[in-house]
Amino acid sequence: xxxxxxxxxxxxxxxxxxxxxxxxxxxxxxxxxxxxxxxxxxxxxxxxxxxxxxxxxxxxxxxxxxxxxxxxxxxxxxxxxxxxxxxxxxxxxxxxxxxxxxxxxxxxxxxxxxxxxxxxxxxxxxxxxxxxxxxxxxxxxxxxxxxxxxxxxxxxxxxxxxxxxxxxxxxxxxxxxxxxxxxxxxxxxxxxxxxxxxxxxxxxxxxxxxxxxxxxxxxxxxxxxxxxxxxxxxxxxxxxxxxxxxxxxxxxxxxxxxxxxxxx
Length: 264
What we know:
By secondary structure, the protein is an all-alpha fold. It has one domain (2-261). 75% of the residues lie in helices and 0% in strands. The chain has helices at residues 2-21, 27-44, 56-72, 74-86, 88-93, 101-128, 136-163, 167-183, 196-203, 206-218, 230-233, 235-261. α2 runs antiparallel to α3 and α10 crosses α12 (235-261). The longest helix has 28 residues, at 101-128.
């Protein structure tokens, strides 16, 4: 067990060193959150009236956390595809190391970048006037639930990187999968006025559950509480169940795909 932990730490540190040497790769976790927060709050929010009232900036920050963390998860697929394409993973296979350490190390790196991304959204929100209205533990849970979901999602996105042939393909496919997941949700707009089919999809979207759970825990406006869909009535439980389900499905699947791709 100690050797496996050491292997994961070494590969996580290696991934972090790559980010330090190529800081442009962190643009989706640093620059993008600031731009998205300002653009959506002041452009979309200018014409948005929330059901039940409330300021859009108070409503939007949880949604922007979700959207930024989901879209920036593409970095998982790109990183794995790049390592496979350059042959560095073939070199890792010649070492006496725990084989899944490559995937676990990548997932740990991704949770660190997700925390960085979330931090930029929160800081930008605080600057423009957003405030949580709950106790310290509730606020910590409201932010932490995003990291739990982000970690589970990274394993699913990792499957894309393992199945594609190069970083460009994984980036394109990842965007096609993740962008609708982030948009067809309650992240940026309430679902009440969506067409019936889209409203059902949005209410059962895991991103909507995580966003609604965060709004509830942070004490921010949460129009989704008026929906009769089960995930919107029990968002915290739904968000944790979605995260557990994604991890249970995609962690073994990613491991299996990795073994197949790297088999002799």
